[in-house]
């Protein structure tokens, strides 16, 4: 079964994205700037990789041996894991890090050192999420049936009344779910939907690669520390799980307030598989920015607080989003296209968790019915 097509409305202000691309292209040409990684990005790459791997080296070589020292190392690894995920592998797997595809492939493969599988990520994120943002039945980022309700177009269950309370826990175990189960589920599902072949994989080759990657990942990052660190095995295991919980929470709390908030829209294709908006207009209706004035925050989260710019120009390295955001916002205003943004990260989180609560209790549905 191939992936059903979704048709966007090509008649909905097509001149908007045409003009926007022209202006963004002019920005890079006039300033003689590459769209790819600059020195700042290369420094960040070295920093985040070191932040993730150095604590592991310190633990397994016996430099850090105390319980709280080891816990501190796992904590740093959790932060480094987030940094690699949000910045380095994210840009690389979009082809935005370098114009050299081999550099992108190598840095994109870092995702496997975090316990996930890079090919599945490309399908879920690049193919499904970026193409069909907030489209129920197509965007897997909002497809959490039986666990959470992220869209008013999804069925509501009684357990969802409590989702605003258990969401942070589920966010925290997100990457644990990745390496234990999700990658296997996705390989099977993507095979059935004919999504593996465009990535150059058969079902057998993808499954074999997932199994191989899981084995060496767990051997290096869990079994080896348990064997060589002079602490009880369960304390090492708790540190490993803490690393994943920190990373999962960071990742979810950056991505969710960019799409699942009060200001964004959610869609279901009509009987013909059509969406009412032009693709570029759709991205602005389903995406939001936050904390755009915070330079350090933007640095740490890989520019993904400029989520609008990222969705419109995923092949541009994130270090440039801050500089093109004014162009995007001005062009959107000229063509009467919404440009959602929150002043602070806290404001964005408040909107996200408020929406989770209303989707869970059904009050959001009642508000829609009376609108």
Automatic annotation (TrEMBL):
A Pfam family annotated for this UniProt entry: FA_desaturase
KW Nucleus (keyword) present: no
Keywords for the protein's UniProt record, in alphabetical order: Membrane, Transmembrane, Transmembrane helix
Boundaries of every Fatty acid desaturase domain copy: 68-341
Transmembrane is among the record's keywords: yes
InterPro entries, sorted: FA_desaturase_dom, Fatty_acid_desaturase
Transmembrane annotation, as ranges: 49-71, 159-180, 201-227, 233-255
Protein name: Fatty acid desaturase family protein
